[in-house]
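Dear U.,

For the methods section draft, I wanted the exact inputs and outputs in one place so we can describe them consistently. I've listed the two proteins in the order they'll appear in the manuscript figures. Please don't edit the token lines directly; just add comments below if something needs changing.

First protein:
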Amino acid sequence: MNTDASALQLVLAVDPTLVAIVLLSLMVSLSAVLIAAVIGIPLGALIALTRFPGRGMAIVALNALMGLPPVVVGLAVFLLLSRSGPLGSLGMLFTPQAMIVAQAILVTPIVAALARQTIEDLWEEYRDEFAAMNVGPVQRIGTLIWDGRFSLVTALLAGFGRSAAEVGAIIIVGGNIDGFTRTMTTAIALETSKGNLPLAVGLGIVLIAIIIAINALAWWARRTGERYAG
């Protein structure tokens, strides 16, 4: 049986090893995106709606952080969580929690930058109406976030896509431990090097399917947002 057929058989047979790796990957990525949403959306809204010295530099820095090298983030988190690091007492290194932290650091700037742009565009559109209605800052932020919810969902999906496809940071802080910290991307790298191509290809098929589903959801969110805006 050739590699592709064996890989497809693993996927269709719901192989337990493959399922465990996929579930861990989804748990880590979704947790990281949730953290990024809690931090990034309010941060993006704050930068979009306030004027302060150095705001332009803050926007430039935020946009630059979207391209953070994963291995650098992994190294920084490793140093923080290692026994000699400031957070070493937490014992998080080589755990799924450490992987979530690393991915959250990578995803948060993406969510924050896209949220800032979305909310700033809406603020320009509704500024006069808010002023006329004397809407307070908190209500203003809540209204703009709700109005831009479909675009913000797209930002979160973009962050999830980055997280799901990431390998450099999580292999450094997670250690790629079988049955504990092995995700789809790290497993693909390992199994390919071992010559276990059916499992590597099977995981690749699942990962591509997830990425396609994410892009389909992002497209749906954009179209839905455009219909509501129209």
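Second protein (the one for the lower panel):
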Amino acid sequence: MIRLKRIDTPLGRMRVGATNKGICLFDFQYRRSIEGIMDRIEKLLDDKFQDGESEFFPVLEQQVAEYFAGTRKEFDVPLHLVGSDFQKSVWKALLDIPYGETRSYKQQSLVLGNEKAIRAVAGANGDNGIAIIVPCHRIIGEDGSLTGYGGGLQRKKWLLDHESRNSGKAVQGQLF
């Protein structure tokens, strides 16, 4: 069974899901594609989301509170990445982008060893169902512009500004 609950954050209500391996979902309640992401997780795990508690929820809630307070820069709550091998490789590469820094889709494609995979990388970023912790918000356009974010560009801007303030690093690029 995949446990599911909702929590409130400074950026709005989020859905949280966990298996016995770790957090498999942490995404904005009203994101347009959240139902599709949840359907993908259910299909790949051959299981269903059901409201309930998980041993991972209190850890996640504590770490998310610390992140929003500006005292946590890295998460260590166990994750259960659920997707294709390619998607998981993209999400794992996102985990290597340091707090307060950004990378372009092209740079991310190069990290993954295929410069021509920019669109596929962007698609996998969009399919990420573990917002903030798997920091797809740190991916920007090659010209430094904010581009695509499932949670909305205002939230992306807020997250990048928050990390910039708390890291002492200026975020590269245009934030609008």
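Candidate sentences for the figure legend, describing the second protein: The first strand starts at residue 2 and ends at 9. The first helix runs from residue 34 to 45.

Thanks,
Y.
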